[in-house]
Design brief:
Order of helices and strands: HEEEEEEEEEEEEEEEEEEE
Strand content: over 45%
Distance between the termini: 99 Å
Number of helices: 1
Helix content: under 10%
Largest sheet: 7 strands, mixed
Shape: elongated
Strand order of the largest sheet: 3-2-5-7-8-1-4
């Protein structure tokens, strides 16, 4: 009887081993790649220089990608309603940074490439609403329709997708201030690469809480946003609080938010002054400066 049990046990173990080995072989097989086309994507340069280099006239319009951004997001959509695109995320320092390879069946696809410096990856499940949530960094993009009937190599030039607003005071935040709040209307932290503009505009709130010794200094603020159109505008309201009591508020209406443009407001904020506006432009970048 013991011999019979031993034979049965040996047989069952053998069958289980064969079954497991077969599963591993199936998983490791590259049969799913048979008949697919190889698509190599190579990001070669940007069309605009970074905002931080705006004062350097020697900067080139074709700038190496690893000198500007820290992340690249590649997404290939099989249709405009595809919510599970094929994606590749790369970080600066990766050996293949700027180059991506996809295996695709013959057909038509939509390619989106985003380059940015955010610590989080945007939600790319909707090609028309790529959401960066609250914080947008200097962001570049490319969008293209791919018709795949054979393997191909494609080089891309990325263009800037964002505008930037900066506010700097030349006077000090009052010592009694415990909180500063900035409210910006009609700004976008989500992007539509098909149109090249922001989507889902909303009001954004930014707060700074001050501890003892952190006031009595000038204040600086800077953020990037996706414009909703070629020429869009926002209202910027700054308020100061002592505990929960509002002690100061000022609104800058109709602040231009234009792609590839920095709008800078500089001056004494906590005393009334007349505004003077100066504009400076260049072939590679634009800077609007408002002094007050």
């Amino acid at each position: 009887m013991k011999r019979t049990y031993l034979v049965l046990l040996t047989t069952l173990l053998g069958l289980a081993l064969v079954s497991c080995q077969q599963a591993v072989v199936d998983d490791a097989s590259d049969a799913s790649s048979e008949g697919k086309m190889t698509v190599n994507i190579n990001v070669v340069q940007f069309e605009q220089v970074p905002f931080s280099q705006a004062a350097a006239p020697q900067s080139s319009r074709a700038t190496n990608i690893d000198s500007i951004v820290t992340k690249l997001c590649f997404a290939v959509y099989s249709s405009a309603s595809d919510t599970h695109p094929k994606t590749i995320i790369q970080q600066k320092g990766d050996s293949d940074f700027g180059k991506a390879t996809f295996k695709l069946d013959k057909g038509t696809y939509y390619l989106v490439v985003l380059a940015h410096k955010s610590t989080i990856d945007p939600d790319m499940s909707n090609i028309n609403v790529i959401d960066f949530k609250q914080y947008v960094t200097d962001t570049f993009y490319a969008y293209d329709t791919l018709t795949i009937d054979q393997s191909l190599n494609k080089e891309l030039k990325l263009r800037r997708a964002v505008a930037r607003f900066e506010l700097s005071t030349t006077d000090n935040i009052p010592d009694s201030c415990t909180r500063l709040q900035l409210v910006l209307s009609n700004v976008c932290t989500a992007f539509n690469p098909v149109t090249g503009y922001g989507t889902a505009p909303a009001e954004k709130n930014y707060r700074s809480n001050f501890k003892s010794g952190e006031t009595g200094k000038p204040f600086s603020f800077g953020r990037c946003f996706f414009p909703t159109a070629e020429d869009s505008k926002t209202d910027v309201t700054l308020s100061l609080y002592t505990n929960e009591k509002q002690t100061f508020t000022r609104t800058f209406p109709d602040v231009p938010i234009r792609r590839n443009t920095v709008t800078r407001y500089i001056g004494r904020l906590f005393s009334e002054q007349f505004l003077s506006v100066s504009m400076q432009s260049d072939d590679e970048w634009n800077v609007n400066t408002v002094t007050f």
